[in-house]
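dude i think i finally got it to work??
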Amino acid sequence: MKILRNTFLALLLLLATGSAYFTGRKLGAGPAALAGSLHLADAGHAVLLQNNPNITPSPNLPPAQIFASVLNHIHTDYVRNYFGDQNLSNGALEGIVTALNDPNTQYLAPVRAAAMRGAYQGSYSGIGAMLSITDEKKLDVDYDYLTVMDVAPGGPADKAGIRPGDHITYLNKHWIIAYSILADVARIQKEMGRTLVQKQAELTPIANRFQTGISLYRALRRLTEGTGTKLGITYTRQGLAKPVTVSLTTAETSVPPVAASSLPNNVQYIALRQFNPQAGKELQAALDNAGHAHGIVLDLRNNPGGVTAAPNANLDGYKMACNLLARLTRGGVEARIERHAGKTTPLIIHSAPNALHLPLVVMVNRGTAGLAEMVAAALQGSGAKLVGSRTAGDDTLSLFANLSSGAAMQITTAHLFTAGGEDLSKGLSPAIQLPSSSANPHAAVNAAAAQL
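look at this
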């Protein structure tokens, strides 16, 4: 019984300390370390937990010294190929950013950074979708989901039937780890009236599921990089009775950021898919052509927003959002920005000389996020009608910073609020609900135009 108890505790220790690998997220401290040495065979691996009595713990050592020590152990003791120091460096930098426990803040290795730059400019690699990590709480357990924010029309994801709001849960039959295994460990530890044998029997298949699973960040990379790779994807969707599994091949997909057309009764329809400098130029041209229209339908559905960035990066969507508000509002305080915890500052817009003061309807849905939500709320506050369905509730403004190595960082640099101080993380709920456009792509647009 003592051997069984030690084995069970060691398994808990292995899972608790290994959970950061499984989830790609920073976790709290696990059970206390076991003294001495213990060999544990689990899922085909032998694990040696060993204390060195000659080492005196020094918790205040500089991080660089600890990093050098870890790197030295890998160089001298690791049995397999670790693919060079650059691979280790990328992993370490990803770990540093992961410690912030913010899914919207990421270190992007060069290949991933290039893919993200392309996506923010309307050129999608991988499955042809903009993905984000979103969180949800169920029964006091924090879940993180790989959520589809935008789907490039005509891309692999679009052709496979994947839509904004879907949660991708499996990749090539590997579960995409959605929560910390510590939740299962804590639940099993609390179970009353069960023997250690029964608890270990319950824990073992759970451990195997985590060990064969894939972390959120690894899945994110595989889904948004490269071309010509066949992938099997399982996703869930609100309203569907069971998950759906599809097969697709990754490809490069380019999406025009703006689409404009004329509707009956002299209504100008403008669909804006992203916020970036190129989209800004095309939007201004579309608005120039709308000067004599009876009204405008601005379609922000499936618009994931954009980022703020250095002017020479050709990525900055924040400036474009401000320019849009200058053309379609009378100016003033149009939003509030929280750049420091607990302190918001007003976003003051000066109306442009060529501003349009026309009846305006703004279309939104679950794929409307970030800057797109801020703009929708500001236009609503200026008199526009908000129609569609509830928005994503993404209140983050991200900074995209290029690094000299070719890598980049995406950092949560602010939180967005309405002009009245309402938290955009709750999403926007239009007073006028519109039917889904999946069955008839024109029905929702025509219904929106009827509101002018």
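The longest strand covers residues 141-151.
im so relieved honestly
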